[in-house]
Amino acid sequence: MGNDVLADVALGGWMTTLEPFLPPLAAVAQDFTALTGVPADLPSALFLRAHLAGLGFPGRTSAGGSCHLLETADGWVAVNLARPDDHAAVPALLALLGAAPHATLSEAARQVQAAEVAAHAQLLGVAAAELGSARGTRAPVRAERLGERRVRDPATLRVVDLSALWAGPLCARLLGRAGAHVVKVESTTRPDGARRGSPAFYRWLHEDHESLVLDFASGALAEVVAEADVVIEASRPRALRRLGVRAERFLAARPGRVWVGITGYGRDDDRIAFGDDAAVAGGLTDLDGQGAPTFLGDALADPVTGVFAARAAARSLAQGGGELLCVSMAACAASLTDGG
User: pTM higher than 0.85, yes or no?
Assistant: First the structure.
């Protein structure tokens, strides 16, 4: 078999694990295609990263190895030790949980409730979520009209992507395939962490995008944003305000603009999230032979959110824009388990 056929077979194997949850996501992808004429390749969007990185199917530990499903006194919690600072915070987390000396995190979690583990971890800046805690809490995308409408030709649109990792860049990729000119913007002091992963996947995600690396403290970021028709970002609002960038001003300044803000739980919630723990918050998990939860796929809330965000942006643009689109990763994951 050729390389493309082998890739299709591999991606198909990953897709099989997700089949019970696919109908709502497939409907979103089909709506994006109806709006733009561009197919959304779900197998690649969801699992190309795992295939290119040679990841195996996950269990109680995520495919990428950083997130862990821990049994608690009343359920399950995901704790994501994705960064060096997260590992450094584990002793403090154990102390907050009242763990015995030399206890492991798994042992400490069994003595307390899942919500308590998640809350203490989040207090320390560690991404964590109680299984299913985001189900039924909010819509995947909330739209707020803050500007005037004006329908634009997609081929004339300039998309400035301030996001990193996976969800926002996937949204940008899909809008780029629909004809927009995408500008990938990174900070000189904080480049996209996805660069440390699979180079082939990074190239696929940012194919044909212009790249800009800026000193954010210089004021250059506000100048680049001022030229955009669509902004995609995954930052806390106050962080961008400190750099002179405000969604409300951006939308009010020119008709037809769209702002896509991607966060773990909403722009009004400071909890952090990555793809694996946000998927667990949405209840997007599998079961092992004993009926205990296991991770499903590879950081699924990331690509799921990217598809939802792209559809939301395409729909808003088709209606004339002027909207702030607040996209919650956990709610996007939950929409698959809630049935739509």
Answer: yes
